[in-house]
Recover the amino acids of this structure.
């Protein structure tokens, strides 16, 4: 029989026992709806977390640091001898290089790279009038203005990448404002003085081999430390640490939530300044000490970055970037591993939700078997007549299969609609609840097209599998017996 | 004329010699030899069908040999349980013999694949049952269309074929009625139209008048007779039967199971009486056997 004839006959048969078939189809619909509802929730939550993480800027960037040159498995290594062990113990292709401006330019030209910036992070004393407050200060690139934490900030982002401006974290702003008995918002437009430890280059002629004073005493005197130099050329490579200060305009106050400062710190800071300003301040960085040693070896006098954050246009570009960075002789670090395990967690969550959702569908498939077996009993004679008129076993089997398939298709479509409806209700309830808690509403619900297609397809497949037994039984019905049946 | 597989090797004599009207004796005939003459629509050889019922074996059909010629109207008589219906089911290929063989138009049913058997039921034979076996929720038209659907006849052709078949049984005006809205006689006519719609060469009727009153039964038999011999007797007196439509078709071999001897004598040209699964008696009636013209027109044997 042609498919069109089969489906016409199947449709007619389904209409003949309309109540029973509707109930069976409804059973499938409920099963599919529960599956769709469960998986939509899983997918929605995954998307929500993914969205938050993507906006955090943590997952589309790689933190690049120079290799220290010391083995991390207890093996002493010579500088320049090849850095840490590569993956799987493979020899490292490149020798450690300083992270200088040339490296920055080279990184910027890697594929998919959107921007490369250093991150400066230092402790500063923010002074407002007589009072002051110690805080971590971090640098922010101009691109950070797109971070959603700055969308709800008071005031505005840095007016230019080189503006001598500062953005305060709400906690710090509150404490500073408390010193002046001001509301925090009134700090915007005021000037704060930031005191910090700054580097100052040594002059070769001032070095005195006899002096062995501590750096602290010299710093307090505003004098450079006197040290025995390894060689006369080394004089240019050292620096002294001096207490410095800079006035900065407060332009904004940002909520403590969600501000992360790129790949550099992965932590909150009390205040933020533009990258270029931080660079000009010549603050003492953690790598300065080892750079002195390195420079004394290489003879380089170029300015080195403690780190560079390389941002790509999409998180998918991270692995390639990491590999490229390692090839260049730097260490690369990203939070991709964290996302990978997160993806695994969500895959397991989706699987569990899917299994729970499928349970209802499994029960519904028993409904299909039951309905079709009943139909065989009722339509015994009809099957006999069809066989007497020349229908083959295959025709009868296909007829029952088609009926099961139609129920599966109808149940699948209705189930997706029902599941979508349930999702809307849950979403609405969540939104109302979150608003009551004064939390911005989040979309925790997502029904992607593949879920719609997959759920309908799954429903049809489950129905066909369920129809297999009744269809085979109907096809094998002895026509002589069936025709005798009253 | 196509050659019949049994024509050449056996070749006992020309068809017309045996089947010329008037030359047929009306009394009992000696059993027809299973070994074939020309024009055999159905040839049954030592056919047996035994059923197991617990430890007992029921010999529904127990060694029958019979030959039905093209254009014959054979009535199978016998008491209940004599094996008439079992024989018909074996001819239809609905049932499989325990032993022996059935040749229909030269092909052995036992050698056919299940698909070929389905095609045999769909295209070569038409079946009519005592209880009509129409599908109650389908209209007359849809019931008659069923064999066409199964045969995958193009949709465009179907309405015309259905109308033709219904005209042949005089029910062209009842296309959209459901079986429940028809009388018993009308339902049986729809069933006959359904059996004829694929233009089968053989019509198998299992007690077609069993559920009908005698007048209606007579009417149905006249109709079947007209299908059997469309040229000679185009269902005279069957109301609404389109004689022209009947004339347009060829003769059909009929094997009818019945227990009404009077009707059998009036319409069949051969009567086979069964008892305990065997043929007890074969006889010719006064009715004319298929004419030479009818045979020639049909192109028998084929």
């Amino acid at each position: 029989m042609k498919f069109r004839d089969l489906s016409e006959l199947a449709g007619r048969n389904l209409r003949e026992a309309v109540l029973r078939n509707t109930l069976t189809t409804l059973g499938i619909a409920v099963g599919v709806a529960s599956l769709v509802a469960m998986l939509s929730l899983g997918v929605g939550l995954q998307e929500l977390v993914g969205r938050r993480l993507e906006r955090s800027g943590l997952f589309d960037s790689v933190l690049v640091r120079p290799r220290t040159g010391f083995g991390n498995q207890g093996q002493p290594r010579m500088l320049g001898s090849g850095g840490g062990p590569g993956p799987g113990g493979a020899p490292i292709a490149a020798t450690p290089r300083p992270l200088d401006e040339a490296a920055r330019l080279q990184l910027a030209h890697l594929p998919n790279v959107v921007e490369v910036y250093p991150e400066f992070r230092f402790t500063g004393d923010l002074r407002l009038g007589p009072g002051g407050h110690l805080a971590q200060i971090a640098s922010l690139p101009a691109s950070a203005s797109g971070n959603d934490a700055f969308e709800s900030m008071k005031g505005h982002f840095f007016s230019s990448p080189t503006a001598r401006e500062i953005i305060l974290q709400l906690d710090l702003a509150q404490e500073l404002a408390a010193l002046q008995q001001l509301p925090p918002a009134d700090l915007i437009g005021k000037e704060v003085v930031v005191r910090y430890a700054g580097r100052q280059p040594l002059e070769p002629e001032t070095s005195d081999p006899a002096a062995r004073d501590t750096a602290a005493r010299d710093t307090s005197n505003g004098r450079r430390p006197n040290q025995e130099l390894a060689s006369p050329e080394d004089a240019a490579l050292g620096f002294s640490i001096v207490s410095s200060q800079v006035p900065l305009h407060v332009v904004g106050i940002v909520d403590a939530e969600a501000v992360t400062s790129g790949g550099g710190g992965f932590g909150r800071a009390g205040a933020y300044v533009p990258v270029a300003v931080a660079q000009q301040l010549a603050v003492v960085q953690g790598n300065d000490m080892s750079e002195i040693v390195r420079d004394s070896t290489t003879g380089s006098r170029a300015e080195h970055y403690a780190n560079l954050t390389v941002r790509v246009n999409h998180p998918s570009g991270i692995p390639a970037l990491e590999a490229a960075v390692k090839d260049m002789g730097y260490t690369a670090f990203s939070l991709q591993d964290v996302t990978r395990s997160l993806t695994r967690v969500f895959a397991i969550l989706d699987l569990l939700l899917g299994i729970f959702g499928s349970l209802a569908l499994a029960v519904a498939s028993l409904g299909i078997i039951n309905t079709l077996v009943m139909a065989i009993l009722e339509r015994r004679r009809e099957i006999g007549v069809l066989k007497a008129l020349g229908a083959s076993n295959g025709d009868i089997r296909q007829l029952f299969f088609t009926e099961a398939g139609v129920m599966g298709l109808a149940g699948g479509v209705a189930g997706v609609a029902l599941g979508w409806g349930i999702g809307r209700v849950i979403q609405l309830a969540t939104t109302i609840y979150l608003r009551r808690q004064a939390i911005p509403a989040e979309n925790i619900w997502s029904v992607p097209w593949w879920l719609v297609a997959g759920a309908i397809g799954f429903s049809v497949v489950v129905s066909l599998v369920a129809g297999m037994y009744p269809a085979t039984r109907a096809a094998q019905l002895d026509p002589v017996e069936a025709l005798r049946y009253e | 004329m196509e050659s019949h597989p049994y024509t050449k090797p056996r070749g006992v004599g020309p068809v017309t010699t045996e089947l010329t009207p008037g030359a047929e004796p009306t009394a009992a005939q000696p059993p027809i030899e299973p070994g074939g003459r020309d024009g055999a629509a159905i040839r049954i050889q030592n056919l047996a069908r035994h059923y197991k019922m617990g430890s007992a074996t029921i010999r529904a059909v127990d060694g029958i040999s019979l030959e039905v010629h093209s254009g014959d109207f054979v009535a199978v008589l016998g008491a209940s349980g004599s094996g008439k219906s079992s024989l018909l089911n074996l001819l239809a290929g609905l049932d499989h013999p325990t032993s022996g063989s059935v040749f229909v138009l030269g092909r052995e049913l036992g050698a056919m694949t299940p698909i070929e058997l389905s095609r045999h039921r769909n295209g070569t034979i038409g079946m009519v049952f005592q209880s009509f076996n129409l599908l109650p929720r389908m209209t007359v038209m849809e019931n008659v269309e069923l064999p066409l659907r199964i045969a995958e006849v193009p949709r465009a052709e179907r309405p015309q074929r259905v109308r033709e078949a219904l005209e042949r049984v005089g029910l062209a005006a009842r296309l959209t009625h459901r079986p429940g809205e028809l009388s018993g006689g009308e339902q049986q006519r729809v069933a006959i139209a359904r059996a004829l719609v694929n233009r089968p060469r053989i019509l198998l009727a299992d007690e077609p008048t069993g559920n009908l009153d005698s007048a209606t039964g007579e009417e149905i038999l006249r109709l079947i007779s007209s299908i059997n011999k469309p040229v000679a007797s185009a269902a005279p007196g069957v109301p609404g039967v389109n004689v022209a439509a009947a004339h347009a078709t060829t003769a059909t071999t009929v094997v009818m199971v019945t227990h009404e001897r009077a009707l059998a004598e009036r319409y069949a040209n051969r009567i086979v009486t069964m008892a305990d699964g065997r043929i007890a008696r074969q006889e010719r009636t006064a009715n004319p056997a298929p004419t030479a013209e009818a045979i020639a027109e049909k192109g028998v044997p084929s």
Remarks:
- The radius of gyration of chain A is 35 Å.
